[in-house]
Amino acid sequence: MKLLSCPLNGLRNISEFTYGGEYHPTPDHQTTSSRDWAEHVFFHDNTAGIVIEWWCHTPSSFWFLAERNTLTDEVVRTFTPDELYTKSIIQHETKPETTP
Questions:
Q1: What is the pLDDT of residues 54-79, one digit of tens each?
Q2: Which is the CATH superfamily of the domain at 9-94?
């Protein structure tokens, strides 16, 4: 039986999870061109090695991220999205504002 560790619910059977695709940082909606946005939505690398993926624990509807080696199918670690999104918010907050 294959198990996956959910950050909220602990070690669970893989049948309780839904794969949500690879994680890709979302480009800034206000500055991204239509072409770059289309590439973000429709074109993804098929990376061999360590990737970050979205997973959902279906019974609890809890979304989280997993680092997984696609060559060995080994899950390196799982973590909550706030680990990535907190960093993004902090980076945006530290940018100095410019006034015309």
A1: 999 999 999 999 999 999 999 999 99
A2: Folate-binding superfamily (3.30.2270.10)
